[in-house]
Amino acid sequence: MARLIIGGGYLGLRVARRWRDAGEQVYVTTRWPLRTAALAAEGFAPLVADVTQPASLVGLPCAETALFAVGFDRNAGHSIEEVYVAGLRNVLDALPNETGRVIYISSTGVYGDSAGDWVDEDSPCEPQRAGGKASLAAEEVLWRHPLGARGVILRLAGIYGPGRIPNQAPLLAGEPLAVPTEGFLNLIHVDDAASAVLAAASADVPLPRRYLVSDGHPVRRGDYYAELARLLHAPPPRFAAPPPGDPRAARAAADKRISNASMLAELRISLCYPSFREGLAAIVASAPS
Fold this sequence. Notes:
Elements: E1 2-6, H1 12-21, E2 26-30, H2 36-41, E3 45-48, E4 63-68, H3 80-94, E5 101-107, E6 118-119, H4 130-144, E7 151-156, E8 158-160, H5 168-172, E9 184-185, E10 187-189, H6 190-202, E11 209-213, E12 219-220, H7 221-232, H8 247-253, E13 257-258, H9 261-267, H10 276-286
Parallel strand pairs: 1-2, 1-4, 2-3, 4-5, 5-7, 6-13, 7-11, 8-10
Antiparallel strand pairs: 9-12
């Protein structure tokens, strides 16, 4: 059977290319008809589908693996619950009964504040932000659905990679960064996240299952930006407190360190970028000068 990717974005396309290069037939959905030509040119089978519109999901192909990797577009006119929760339910209801493993890309935002302590798959979930709450509700949708018996949930830490390094421009300009300096950042390079998806699709483990996907080396925010400034040959970072109600302040308030022990032990992947230092260095080195 083929592979089906619902959401061909930053992570989804990388997974699609890995499966394509392995000789798999890969279906990739997009909300935009004009994007189908580019997907077909890459060797994918494009499908025009919108997770918020059940009628557009009729006829989804039977696949050995179905990956739900839909991001939230604030400009699309839908709430995060409509996209993450109802959207996943719509997809599950549309998938053929013969679908194999279903992988849902969730978030470590499902956890609350752990005062900097380590959390793992069994730690209590007390999300504080809308994204975490919606992700946790979507997880429950999968578990309660008949296809959930073949489900794998991947709770991703902050995903970064080429073209996705926040605050690079103000850092180079020497401007104050409106980010907290305290609290831990938990990160995963997009290529390592793709490796986790491929491993989750084929791992011989009891199902259903969930894993935390992180490089396992949390870094304090101030140290992260200091290292990024060094790599960019930028001035040392200066910081300004985020304005009240800013999502960046809310993220920092949920302070935790993410353990990747289960991912490494059961999915048996070898990280290309075992910490943010290797990941940032590779991105900066490969960036156009």
